[in-house]
Amino acid sequence: MNASPIRCLITAGPTREYFDPVRFISNPSSGKMGYALAAAARDAGWRVDLVSGPVALPAPEGVEVVPVVTGREMLAAVQELFPLCNILIKVAAVCDMRPKRRFPDKVKKDELALTVEFEPVEDILKTVAAGKQPGQIVIGFAAETQNVEAYARRKLAEKKLDWIVANRVGGARSAFESDRNDVLLIGSDGEKLAFGPGAKTDIAHQLIGYLNAYHFVH
Which of 27, 86, 181, 212 is catalytic? Predict the structure, then answer.
């Protein structure tokens, strides 16, 4: 799996889960971190596939972008591309739940229910990591509002990842919608490195540079 060029699959942005054709739940992810990583991986000479939720960002030049909207669509795209890749960096902030019922037409305001029943969205990272082949590397992101490192370590173990990137969201230092970030890279072997605070573009190049230098160059 280490033949040149490295092929990298990155997910970015939010997903949306619809109540009806014009209403949905989502989150504030801008996609900036994922897009920055895609550009950095391209600059490193990697072949990059970028599965992106709805964002207001231009496609990075030289990167193959696969647009998706829902978590189910993102899972399908990742499952199709991951067997072809050396590394998956799952940055996207996928909605954890979706309405059990999606109405085919716009529901009038006076007919809206005050209570909505939800169901869990498929866990993309756990599903894909469970099927990785020898030589493939899976990296997740953990966006947390508290106990950032502890929750990231739990996610790293539960989903059997190789690495996880922990960052804080919410409040004044939130990574969501910001051009800056402050992350902690934690490995399944216990290694831990801090990157930032700094511009997401700089942190992306540092992360890709680290992976390139220590895990793919022999």
Answer: 27
